[in-house]
Amino acid sequence: MAKEPSFCVQVKSEVARQAEVRSCCLRAELAACARTMGSMRIGNNREALLFTSESPAVARRIFKLARQLGWQADILVRLCTRPRQRRLFVVQMSLRQQGLFLLQELGLADRKGRLKDRLEGRLLDRNCCRRAYLRGCFMGGGFLNQPGHGYNLEFVFDNNEAAEELKEIMTQFGLNPSRRQRKESCLVYLKEADQVGEFLRLIGATQGVLAFENGRILKDMRNQVNRLVNCETANVSKAVEAGLSQVEMIGRLQNRLGLESLPPRLQDLALLRLSHPEASLQELGRLLDPPLGKSGVNHRFRQLRLIAEQLRSEKRAGARLRL
Ligand SMILES: [Zn+2]
Q1: 151 pLDDT band (50/70/90 cuts)?
Q2: For 297, which of 10, 147, 256, 285 could close a Cys bridge (C-beta 3.0–4.6 Å)?
Q3: From ligand 1's centre to the CA of 70, what distance in Å?
Q4: Per-residue pLDDT for 190 more than 60?
């Protein structure tokens, strides 16, 4: 069974369907797609530039961009079984008919036909075209976590220069990407939530930004609630523990002395504690007549404890207790 498309594929599809395309940006966006999802087929008279995506919307967009430039393109669907079953959409542009011209137009090859690691020409001169380049890189090679599962956007390149180029463009838009090597590949990534959100806004992924922000808010809320609950549980158990140790202490007083020998204000509190072992000091104070604040209640408990300690040491000394 084919799986529901991941959040990442959904955002790519959204960008592919909705982001505006200006005619000046066509080449920059296609060039970025070629860099990140492109491959070349050679030999057999079937030389072609291929763009492969899991998103049919992305494939359609590439097809449309090519058509707008007046280039020949076809879309094929392939069923892929490894590593998991999924449909792949392949846009192929024949290099046989269009030859080197196409690679040069996309800045992938220079005038002499040599393939270049950095884009040739003036494809990225304008701001809108640089955004289109970011968009193409995202559709072709971006990886975005599910919302609420960490804020991570990364791009994988097999070519350091192309990675550096993307990093530079992102920096020009005020982003702060990092770069690192992973085996043969070069990774460019954004780790902070604000940065990932800003990138999605830059490439026109409005829904993606919303879903991303929602996930982020939910996660923050969950963390906050967890913190509160943990904090309250800690406080509650502390109060309960204190209450129980007071009950124990009052029990000792009762056995050795009898609560009726205590001064009335201490006796009231002791009885109240026995009937409300889990109440907080404030709650006990409110139940007293007349009511008493927390520190007052605390003070009376200190007196009770003092008596209990006195009782213990005098029992050892065999002396009489004086109140
Ligand atoms: Zn443009």
Answers
A1: confident
A2: 285
A3: 17
A4: yes
CA dihedral over 119, 125, 126, 131, signed as positive or negative: positive
Ligand 1 centroid – CA 132 distance (Å):
7
CA atoms of 188 and 180, how far apart (whole Å): 7
Give the Cβ contact number of residue 131 at 10 Å. 21
What's the gap in Å between 15 CA and the centre of ligand 1? 16
- With a CB cutoff of 8 Å and minimum separation 6, the contacts of 165 are 118, 119
Complete domains list, the chain, with CATH: 7-204 (3.10.28.10), 236-317 (no CATH)
pLDDT digits 0-9 by tens, 219-246: 666 666 666 556 656 666 677 778 878 8
Give the pLDDT mean for 47-66: 92
Radius of gyration of the chain (CA): 36
Q: Are 236 and 256 in contact (CB under 8 A)?
A: no
Tokens 């011209």 belong to 101
Residue pair 153/189 in contact (Cβ under 8 Å)? The answer is: yes
The pTM of the full predicted model, rounded to 2 decimals, is: 0.65
Q: Is 293 helix (H, G, I), strand (E, B) or coil?
A: coil
